[in-house]
Amino acid sequence: MTLVFSTRKKSQGEILLQFTINTKMSDFTPFKMRLVHLDLKGAPPKISYFSEIFPLFRALGANGLLIEYEDMFPYDGQLRLLRATHAYSPSEVTEILRLARLSELEVIPLVQTFGHMEFVLKHAAFAHLREVACFPNTLNPHEAESLALVGAMADQVLELHRGARWLHIGCDEVYYLGEGEASKQWLQQRQNSHVKLCLSHMRAVASHVRAQHPGTTALVWDDMLRDMPQDQLAASGVPQLVEPVLWDYGADLDVHGKVRLMEKYRECGFLRLWAASAFKGATGPSQALPPVEHHLRNHEQWLQVAGRGPGDTLQGIILTGWQRYDHFSVLCELLPVGIPSLAACLQLLLHGSFTEDVKRTVENFLGVSSLEIKDTVSEGSGSFPGSDIHALVTQVSLHLRSSVDALLERNRYVTGWFSPYHRRRKLIHPIMVQHIQPEALSLLGRWHPLVQQLEAALQVAFYPDTVEEWLEENVHPSMQRLQGLLRDLREAAVPQPLPNSPGWDPSQDP
Asked: Among 173, 179, 293, 439, which one carries the catalytic annotation?
């Protein structure tokens, strides 16, 4: 089968790049399924951006999507309050699925049902279902209403994803489990344990999925399972209900340890396992640019795990692209900025290594002259969807703050003659205005149009709240410092009474 992928580089008008890929090239990889994770709890793209990016995902070697909707799903009825301001409508979710089908990408939806429940438990209407009253991250597994809640969430999601073969029910990082009052009392009873508490809720949610949606199998992140005693895990019934996703985003993951873990899961009764790597969003909660070399090494080692593990066990790999570490954290790398890393990682999985030939293939797909692996990210424009965002974010992230810091903190005229002391009192030698102001104006003239371009590019792909948040976190602080310096220069240039001179009032001294 041949798939044609085309993108239009809008910044240069009518340039059309066209790529053809023979999908049989994926025969090498041990991962039958290669899913791109879309984390929509931060910076959810507009539908129009999905229409551009899905064909590229497929051309690069992906054949599925793991969509973590969180508050972007159009929950209805009593769950309607979970919707974010710009949540997708039911028709928009249907359009996402249609676009995925057109690019032959199988969709697996993800619904958190245990940990990472902040987007639900932050609301007053559901706060009583918290495991620990003051923390909104973990669901209280003892309340019948808790199971009814997550069951209703899963049902609504699967109603719009008819025919989905899998539903990911999360169950990772269930922090503070066992620390609620109901759990403490339950744990005092003989034979009860944290392991049993965790597995019982996992089993209940997965059983609901199987009973209500017989053709759908539950996936779970595996971190809560890793250290559980093998006999308890095997006897729990969970291995017959879920497929664990072994996740590790490190550049130096323990290959031998992962193989042993796979063998343990197989011995416990899990017949099918999944892997999860990362192409972005795993190297720092406020990371702006993905370290491509780190992510390539992560995928190289997952290939080693797949090659050494039990045969025919791994169903596929999920290339995670986290957009927030949790519901309340800041944004990390935006999806368009992570595309070069994703492209490199997918191609590495398909070819088994990242040779110069593979690198050139990636560069051709992206329309970039050179993909720098060892540097933080490649600078320069490309022709992939969102390449303008990638180029502008790179410039801003690498140079805006450092250029403003250099002027305010290392320029000898600013530090020597217009320090914070001088700025507060509006004191400056007139000649120093001529030394400082032209450079400050030049810097502002350099960055102001670039920031405007970036804002316009972000508005094409993202909703207003995302644009506002990213600029406020990453751009405005430096621009405000620069503009503040120019404002203080203008005010200080107006002659002021000098200390201990006629007209100087010490009571006005800050």
From this structure: 173
